[in-house]
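Can anyone check this?
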Amino acid sequence: MASSDRIMGLSKYIVTLPGSTFSVASMVFLSFILGAIVSALEPSPNYSLLYSIIYGGAAGFLIFGLTSIMSGAVTQPMINTLEGRHMKMKQSMFLSLLSMLIVGFVYFIGSLISSFTIYSYTIDALVYGCVIIFAIRILVLWGTSNINFFKSLPAAATQPALILSMVIVIVSLTSITTNIGYFSILALLIKIVIASLILVVAIYSFVVIIESPMKRNLGVGGLELLSLFLAHVTEGSNSLEGLFEDMGEPIDTIIGIMAFKNKNGLKAIFLSPSVHPGPIGNIGGGNMPTQLANKFEPFTMVCHGPSTHDFNPVSAKEISKIEKVVRDTLESLEYSNKAGKFSRVQSGNAKIGAQYFDNNLVLLATMAPEGFDDMDFGVGLALINLAKAKTGAENVILVECHNAFKGDGGRILPGNKEVFELMDAVEKLQSPEKQNNIKVGCAYDPMDDVSKDEGVGESGVKVMVLEVDNQKTGYILLDSNNMIIGFRERILKHLKDIGLDEAEILTSDTHFVNALSGGHNPVGTKKQDVILEHIIKSTEDAMKDLEDVTVACDVSRIKDLKTLGPTHATELVTTISSIVAVSKIFAPLIFIIAFLSAFIWIFYWAL
């Protein structure tokens, strides 16, 4: 669904903030430079230019730098005592730096204009700049800290209040040279209060209006959702799961299970759950491939079964339900030493790798090199049932390879032409003429030198090589969310060169790698050569690990798994999309009117 892609794309506006030291140093330096430049615009006839610059720089530091640093130091504990989202000192200092730059710019423009006119607009410009940053700080603190609107006002007012207080002290009680001149404190206060009220009303009205659809449809406020999401991105908090649990609905789904035993017991487990590993980071099932695999002692591969974001678990604890189903199934499996060779069928762009294990069938579906994304659960069920009818297989395990990233869209939904191409490919499946003994070798490499920012999650790469009748087939699983187009084909070529007869490249669709700017992060965008080296080394290790095994398969039902569900997932995305669309029109309108009204009040109406 293109809407969800646009929502994920909003995460590109989330950036890594600099440390507190950088912000403080920048405020000291920039405030001094600002004061020196403004002073140089109108140097005092009684003093030298150098004197004016030095004293102007000192005044700039006191008015803007010192007060902004004090505000940053005070705002963080003020917010944290209100028991909202924990605010870090670097976030508070950066907000002060940004606010100082804005008020400083407005002050500079006012000073520049005043140097060419008979009337001084400097103090009015300073007041207007303070009112602007008051409004911005309200939006930031209220919107990201998950606190009450009225509780955010004192923290938002600290910086403009400190700046104006310092101006009053310097102009009224000291001999420090500034270009502000003398002014009426009462008139100043009246201007500030009225202009601030104008913007406060505008901000409150805007937020109430855009939040109402989400509160009405989902019972949760948009700012609360935003603040909890930011808490996850910046602190690793899982508080967002609480909201999803309230919104979620239970579903029944399936999981394909294949197990291999050697003479010492269980050697490897291959899983394909029709549960989507999302929505993001460690929230819900975002890191499910790793979390589920780590629950089992043997080598375990968790692939991507047919599922979309509708099937995102609401919390990580739901993964325990999947674990229980797998454990119960493993206890009742019947093993065989027979398997068929790996083969492929194709129709249009649809390619399906097929391998029989006694009377069971594993299908690896891909559209590569054509781009595609998640396969709808209903489509997957249709393909499974068609394969059963066509081949007579008792169990069919379907894996959606997720190995060619298309970008926005690309989902395989009912009615898409890709569905019929996949069905036509399934119709071409043939039962093997004979089955032979099977050998399996496994290897795992966490790929510690490739980070999640570079597209690889905690499980790195897992390789399982199967040998049947002298044919070696590699099942290569990267813990990633899809793959850039062309990388699959490059990997396959190199695997042929080291002795594999057949292979398929899979990704787990982990959303652990998606908690960063831009939303999408397919593997292969960065460090292709390094990743390829890890895959080749792991495949060679798996080939060395080959040994005789027996195999068993089953497809089990997972009952009452609490997910976002098709209703709430669609409603959430649609509601956020509508809010974003309306905000693009409504926000400029209301804030232009509000800022223009405050401007007119400060510069023309107020006495």
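Reply from J.R.: I decoded it. DSSP finds 16 helices and 14 strands in the chain.
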